[in-house]
Amino acid sequence: MNRSSFLAEPAARRLPVASLLFVMFAVAVHVVPGVADWLQFDRDAVARGELWRLVTSHFVHWSGNHLFWDTLALGMLGGLCERDRVGRFLQCVALSAVLIPLTLWFAAPQMATYRGLSGIDSALFALLAVRVGRQSLSEKDWLKLSIAGIISGGFAAKVGFEFVTGATLFVDSAAAGMIPMPLAHVVGGLVGIGCGLEDRRSTSPRLPLSPGRVVRNVTYLPCLVGRLPSDCHFNPAWWLKDSNSSKK
């Protein structure tokens, strides 16, 4: 497979490597004894300078049930976001991984420990929802837009339920002995919305070059600056042939 065919390969065929690695890391942390206590968010430990806990706390879980639901959501949502645009996916994960514990540090001083991927999952859900919503608007697909709106409303209702009841909707928080932190989901959702609004794709039409056609460099200048070859189907052999023919 040459470079052109690789770049033109549909995003849906690419394996979501980063999402799988995140899931595998969370599972490994859960099954290896003693690692969870060293990686969880611990307010006293962070105050002593163990700052890595701010990020690694997301990959630590209170129970197998907690791990199952969080990694299931990460695998599904992360896979969809990563396949579409891996750079924005990683940006969303990184920002939410940092901003969520920092917000909880200041906004929830009573919180001594924190674990779980649900905040990052919320960020990825919001990123995907914004992306689908924008695509539906541009394509005027009102059915898809309505479905995205209903699902997003369900997410907002879930967060509201957690605030009101102090319980989680899927994870058995009582059995795990944990107290839900819906603020983490709110922060994650805001991060995902921000990343989704920033995620602008090029809407310029494709202008394929064909053999025997005389083409000037200026015509395809946008294609020659960072958009080769998937956006313009640029073929150097055709271009050279056309350029040579124009000199005769």
In summary, what is this structure?
This protein has 248 residues and is mainly α. The protein is built from 13 helices and two strands; from the N terminus they run αααβααααβαααααα. A two-stranded antiparallel sheet has the order 1-2.
Can you describe this structure?
- The chain is an all-alpha fold and 248 residues long.
- It folds into 2 domains: 10-198, Up-down Bundle (Rhomboid-like fold); 217-247, no CATH class.
- The chain contains 13 helices and 2 strands.
- It has helices at residues 3-7, 17-31, 35-39, 43-47, 53-56, 64-84, 86-107, 118-139, 142-165, 173-176, 182-198, 221-224, 236-247; strands at 41-42, 113-114.
- The chain has a two-stranded antiparallel sheet with strand order 1-2.
- Helix 2 runs antiparallel to helix 6 and helix 8 packs antiparallel against helix 9 (142-165).
- The radius of gyration is 23 Å and the shape is globular.
- Residues 1-9 and 202-248 have low confidence and may be disordered.
Summarize the topology.
Blueprint: H1 3-7, H2 17-31, H3 35-39, E1 41-42, H4 43-47, H5 53-56, H6 64-84, H7 86-107, E2 113-114, H8 118-139, H9 142-165, H10 173-176, H11 182-198, H12 221-224, H13 236-247
Antiparallel strand pairs: 1-2
Helix pairs in contact: 2-6, 6-7, 6-8, 7-8, 7-11, 8-9, 8-11, 9-11
Structural features:
248 residues, Rhomboid-like fold, two-stranded antiparallel sheet, disordered N terminus, 13 helices, globular, mainly alpha, disordered C terminus, 65% helix
